[in-house]
Write a structure and sequence with these properties.
By secondary structure, the protein is α+β, with helices and mostly antiparallel strands. It is built from eight helices and 13 strands. The structure holds ligand MTE.
């Protein structure tokens, strides 16, 4: 190997080296853009208020968690707009306090809860879950919340309650995507509505979620309260909820209303049932380049398969 001292190097060569470095950093920048297409131009939010929770090791995963930056800059939250970076850019418009959640319908103890009271009703746990979006990407997120079942039992559903309906805040002042104008994109019938069967809502995996990564939910991830049902496609996890209603009929959900042949009520992650316009067999973990095989029920088969015994999952997609 030839080692040269600085005094041996001609100044012309140093200029060349500067050029080389500039070109190299330019090319590396280009490569980074090409190799990580999810890298966003928007910045992750500053740290939010801390939210402490005991880690529940029963829900630990071997998969490493997706970075806080990706979780908060690559979002689906159509109330802010259709692009992945719209929620991070516009999240400051949402005011998550004061906030109340109406819990009503077929229950013996209907009530309107203040969000901070609701968050303190039961001990908070940290659970790491996979989130698989119907679009073919996935993340691994350390959520903070408690089982939705705890709240369901507290309000005492009556025998008429067969489904639980979740409704997102409808306020065009805070959610520009809900504004009716020729220029703004609006494909959903607001407010965003989602639902679960009562036994799905009572399942121990279903999390009433108040935070992630040790802090309160960032606005773009559904502050101040959302649902997470990890064996279902991500759109079942309604964000920024203001109402939880117990009903006897299967709720008409926002995506079902928009495209019934594409988004069924159940929406269990199922690599064997293609979306009409694309395969669901594989997914790309955000932050990675390769595609991995999508797992039945997003990897939660042992826990949830019994909920669907005897059901035709091709028909009930
Ligand atoms: N909830 C509301 N209110 N509005 C939405 O547009 N998008 C859903 C779901 N919940 C959505 C929503 C979809 S498609 C996904 S994949 C997840 O939120 C994404 O959650 P994340 O952005 O925190 O990863």
């Amino acid at each position: 190997m030839l080692i040269r001292h600085a005094s041996d190097i001609a100044s012309s060569e140093i200029t060349d080296y500067q050029l080389y470095l500039n070109r190299r950093s330019f090319l590396m920048g280009m490569a980074a853009l090409v190799l990580s297409p999810t890298r966003s131009a928007v910045a992750a939010p500053p740290a939010g208020a801390p939210l402490s929770a005991a880690r529940n090791e029963q829900f630990a995963l071997e998969d490493s968690p997706t970075s806080f930056e990706n979780i908060t800059t690559y979002n689906n939250f159509w109330e802010f707009g259709p692009n992945k970076d719209d929620p991070a850019r516009l999240a400051h418009l949402l005011k998550p306090r004061p906030w109340t959640v109406q819990v009503d319908g077929h229950v013996a103890r209907p009530r309107r809860y203040d969000i901070d009271e609701l968050a303190r009703l039961f001990p908070l746990e940290e659970r790491v879950y996979r989130l698989r979006c119907v679009e073919g990407w996935s993340m691994v997120i350390p959520w903070i919340g408690y089982p939705l079942a705890s709240l369901v039992k507290r309000v005492e559903p009556t025998s008429k309650a067969r489904f639980v309906e979740f409704t997102t805040l409808h306020d065009p002042a805070q959610f520009p995507g809900q504004r009716k104008s020729l220029l703004s994109f609006s494909s959903l019938d607001w407010p965003y509505v989602e639902g679960l069967r009562l036994d799905e809502a009572l399942h121990s995996l279903t999390l009433l979620t108040f935070g992630l990564y040790g802090q309160v939910l960032p606005n773009q991830d559904g502050a101040p309260i959302r649902i997470v049902a990890p064996w279902k496609y991500g759109f079942k996890s309604a964000k920024s909820i203001v109402r939880i209603r117990f009903v006897s009929e299967q709720p008409k959900t926002a995506w079902e209303k928009a495209a019934p042949s594409e988004y069924g009520f159940y929406s269990n992650v199922n690599p064997a049932v293609d979306h009409p316009r694309w395969s669901q067999a594989t997914e790309r973990r955000i932050g990675e380049f390769r595609r991995r095989k999508t797992l039945m029920f997003n990897g939660y088969t042992d826990q949830v398969a019994a909920l669907y015994t005897g059901m035709d999952l091709q028909r009930n997609f």
